[in-house]
Known about the structure:
Radius of gyration: 23 Å
Oligomer: single chain
Low-confidence stretches: none
Number of strands: 15
CATH superfamily of the largest domain: MOFRL domain
Largest sheet: 6 strands, parallel
Mean pLDDT: 95
Strand order of the largest sheet: 6-5-4-7-8-9
Shape: globular
Amino acid sequence: xxxxxxxxxxxxxxxxxxxxxxxxxxxxxxxxxxxxxxxxxxxxxxxxxxxxxxxxxxxxxxxxxxxxxxxxxxxxxxxxxxxxxxxxxxxxxxxxxxxxxxxxxxxxxxxxxxxxxxxxxxxxxxxxxxxxxxxxxxxxxxxxxxxxxxxxxxxxxxxxxxxxxxxxxxxxxxxxxxxxxxxxxxxxxxxxxxxxxxxxxxxxxxxxxxxxxxxxxxxxxxxxxxxxxxxxxxxxxxxxxxxxxxxxxxxxxxxxxxxxxxxxxxxxxxxxxxxxxxxxxxxxxxxxxxxxxxxxxxxxxxxxxxxxxxxxxxxxxxxxxxxxxxxxxxxxxxxxxxxxxxxxxxxxxxxxxxxxxxxxxxxxxxxxxxxxxxxxxxxxxxxxxxxxxxxxxxxxxxxxxxxxxxxxxxxxxxxxxxxxxxxxxxxxxxxxxxxxxxxxxxxxxxxx
Length: 448
């Protein structure tokens, strides 16, 4: 594809992926779910009379927690007694009634531990006559960090890094996080009991299972120490864990360390949880925008999972079917898939799962005409980079070769970032302050 045509098509599809981000903007999502009429707060059909409560507190955690808190502040105003909000560095926003903290992600750091300590103190302050609003979004697992008794932040950091490099799913990682934490897996609900709790969730987990989002601090935990043991055995990670983590998990398996709260526990009786935005909402908004732009559209799935470079082969097969047979859609076609892939890190390069998906797709589709594969992390940060993903076509591999880069070598070294950067194929949005997993767009155009 000619460079000018590539740029033209990039510009043509930009409003479509931007429509997905706009649909899950955190402030709008909160205000759709919660409204105030006088002194009554209505949340997804339930009414909370603010005059009944002595104090109204707020806790926020995650990449989107600051704009979510701004929306909550606009609703509650000076009825809000106090609040603690912790976000990823670079995702800050001005707050009037809440204390804002920024911390490290995806590896937890001391700033996150300090912020969590403040939030826990606030939750424990809430009594039976108080209302606690909790705002949860992607990244909350890393940012809301309190090690279980006997463990240290370093233990959690090493364990998190070990799992991220092993290519585990977010559900597997969170099962471990919950059992090494003093606040995850329903334990924050226990700390806040007997206060009334309203939890608004912006989901970053495929299918929105509540006990996986930010490791489910306010819902019953469906996982056990035995599940953690199974994950560790599956990936061969037991012996690579820090010794104190091994000892704590063994004590849990033997019944000495307490399990996380389960369904039916009284600590959940006064907790309401509402998902205000997720991957499907974003995908459907993009689908509508694509249709309005003249594309024939298909939402393939919002449950896309698997190793990024293997998922890329499946997406490439769909592109080839469209290019060769004009199926399953007439052209121009836009197929959207949402979810979250994983990357097993074997090399020393730089990138994230969406960039690796784009690079692997470019390799699988090298030489094929009239398509764009767009991969997007909805939070705007794909792994430890300033890019949200990539945007590749059938000439991307050749463009890399022209500047001395081998696509195959870069993929083997997990170095998608530098390859896509050199070929002008990075997708940069800047921090979006939202996070509802990832989206992949397959655009196939009539023959140029």
